[in-house]
Amino acid sequence: MERPRGLAPSNEQSGPGLGPAPADNALELLVHGVGGTTPEDMLDDPRTVRITGDDTAAVFRRADDVEAEREAAEEAAQGRTGRRGGRPVPEAYVWCNLTSGNGSRALWLLLLPFMVVNLAHWMRPTVRDNRIRTVRLYGLLVRLVGLSLTVLLVAAACEVALDLVAWQCAGTRACAEDHSWLGFLSPDGSGGAWWSQPGRRLALASLLPAALTFLLWYLSHRTWSAYESQRPPSGQDGAEEENDRSGLGRPGFWYGRRLVARLRAAHTAAGLLTVAAAAGGAAARHDAGAGGPGALDAIGRLVTAALVVGAAVVLWVVCRRGRTENRLDRHLDTALVRWLPAGSLVVLGLTLVYAAWSRPEWRSEHRLPGDTTFGGLVLVQGLLVVALCVVARLLHRAHPDPRAAMRGLAGPAVAMLGCSLGGVMSAGVGQRMADWLDGTGGSIPGPPVLLTWQASVIPPLLLVLLALVGRLAWRTVRLRRAEIGAVELAYRGEAEDAGRTRRIANTRAMASLTDRAPLIIGVISAVTLLLGALALVGATATGRTPDRAAHGTYAVVQGVAASSQALGSWLIGVGFILFVTWGRRAYKDPAARRTIGILWDVGTFWPRAAHPFAPPCYAERAVPDLTWRIATWVRATGGRLVISGHSQGSVLAAAAAWQLKPSVRKRVALLTYGSPLERLYGRWFPAHFGPAALSGLHRDVDCWRNLYRATDPIGGPVRLRGDCGPEVDREALLDPLAHGRTAEHPLPAPILGHSDYRADPVFAEERERLLARLSPELPGPRPECGPGEPRGSLPEQSTA
Predict the structure, then answer these.
(1) d(Cα 668, Cα 259) in Å, to the nearest integer?
(2) Membrane spanning segments where (predicted)?
């Protein structure tokens, strides 16, 4: 990290490991939220200078404040009053380029199932030390779900490239004639003398899913190097100061290099072995049949054995080790990381040579046995999610948290959503590719029956979703009626305007719908699990597509089955296009990003603990940045500072404060506004942002104030009950500032909701109260805790 400029050199000490503290040594560190902004807007000055950082994330100051500490030291030495009059130096940490940029980053949305499963790892309930084995089992189950998703994605690519294109279409005269680019693979093509054999077609088509696997490996490795390779300051020297080190304060929490590398090697190997199994399995089945050559049959058995051994090694690597957070793990399993993917690549190469061996009598008929593969994956995922529900429930019952979402079952529900997203994407790609290849109708058998069934259950799922939307709409109407009285009371004495009152009440009611998210997630996950089980049973029992399975029944049943199958196929195609389009817009349009980006920023805030191919974790760059900046500034100047965080910036600020040593943390004050710390993170991630963790942070920092609005759909109160010192939350800010036109607001005041907290006079008031606490001396003793309240360190929570 670049050495910060503008710091006064010192030899004296004003605290343990701290430099001298001139009168003006105070800092206000601003951290923006979702959507990002410019340093000029954050600092209210068109002239800003980057003092440390790069084009991705950096700290800025006003041009006039670059040498503020040095000037303050010189003025203090001369006995003169500083030109700043005791005002703190404002700095802006700009991190928006970590999560936004050019439109190509919308392709990361294709990795959404991986990100969702990774979220499930962090949603485990709060635990005690005597539940370490149960916590490890929870983490293991989530990692296995993530591994199944990788196999599912690569298997879907194999289904398209090997089965639909190389096996079915290229092996069928009618389909090959409709697609001239497959002519060299067709048995009847002019140039197909060598490539026309099924094994060689499969070997050539295997390059596509293998290339997809290497692309995922490359993106994971590249993004880790760019985003997540920053070492936190807790491990920069050998002497660790005593600390509770619970939750996000553990030394190795934001440095998961070893686990990510192990999982990346295992998932890469799993993808390559899946491709080898798809190509080599077809050849082995042919050779094992009647009339197969003895030598090739023996080689096929060896290939099968090698695939089984490789799969066992991959499972061992995934199950063997979880996250190491209690220390900064600098070691890397070099041999494993290098040789596991390399060995899988060798097995793939030998398998493709074996599959391409000459078999003149071999003909491609029907479809490859994909039903068994996809059916087995769906069954395994369902069993893993059910087991995860049992483990999560045990953890929650051992240490109940009334504010935890879905009573501790948020993790399994989100894992189920990740599996369903992977299944829908696989079914959609296979179904749409089959429809495109089979333009004449009936020329090829099509995708596996299970994929068709999975596409067919989308319309019923949408009906359930529409019913939920209707219920929420009705609830919004009722809440709006209830809020009208509250709005009238809040603006009592101002001119009445019924239309304005309804708009404010409606905004408040809409903002409260965020708290209904657990209901939506829970219902959708349960319905998805039920429909997935029905699709698996239907595909297994009938062996036919829904429309054919309904043939011979009532006309209404046949019509519903056929309509659901066709509609589901088209909905997947349209949804995929809209998905990428909205994602691209969210990365380029700040307004759209504020609407869509909060969920994406929540997902990419957490380190990759369950799936290495998930989108990169920006916090593994942002949190060390903030921690390094705070620690080095306090060490050099001995001053104190306020971290001012909006929205997601407040989460980064809290995470950085947890990483600080106690001697530095007690010189820090927090000002959060529009913060999702309790409303979103505390409910969905109770193990790391639950009441105990937030209460401990309140005790450790010098002071903490939190601002929120009733019209804010994201931010909310912190709800610290019975903690030391004053309450953290200020009562809900009035929004809008005026009901109608007043002398202070001659034009109608806007309803701000989640944005522009700094426009409220209360913000300036609370900011001044915090800044007034900044002084060269160490802070005084904190008020005593109430009866029965915990003090000191929190029990360490182990993680898998």
Answers:
(1) 32
(2) 106-123, 135-157, 202-219, 265-286, 298-318, 339-357, 377-396, 408-430, 450-474, 517-541, 561-583
Rounded to whole angstroms, how far apart are CA atoms 656 and 59? 15
Tell me: the pLDDT tens digits for 300-350? 889 999 999 999 999 999 998 888 887 777 777 888 888 999 999 999 999
pLDDT at 324: 81
| Cα(693)–Cα(687) distance, integer angstroms | 8
> Which domains does the chain show, CATH number per domain?
26-99+618-772 (3.40.50), 132-226+257-437 (no CATH)
How far CA 499 is from CA of 482, 495, 504, 505, 672, in Å, comes to 15, 12, 9, 10, 32
Identity of the residue numbered 218: Y
Tokens of 504: 């404010």
Residue 209: partners with Cβ closer than 8 Å, 6 or more residues away: 154, 157, 158, 161, 162, 271, 274, 275, 278
Q: Tell me which long-range contacts 42-45 makes (C-beta under 8 A, separation of at least 24).
A: 42/92, 42/94, 43/90, 43/92
The predicted pLDDT at position 593 comes to 56
- Does the pLDDT at position 192 exceed 70? no
Q: Model confidence over 529-581: pLDDT tens digits?
A: 999 999 899 888 887 877 777 766 767 777 777 778 778 777 777 777 777 67
Closest CA to 213 of 277, 258, 119, 137: 277
Q: Cβ distance 221 to 263 under 8 Å?
A: no
- Say if residues 694 and 720 touch (Cβ distance below 8 Å): yes
- CA nearest to 658, candidates 668, 648, 673: 668
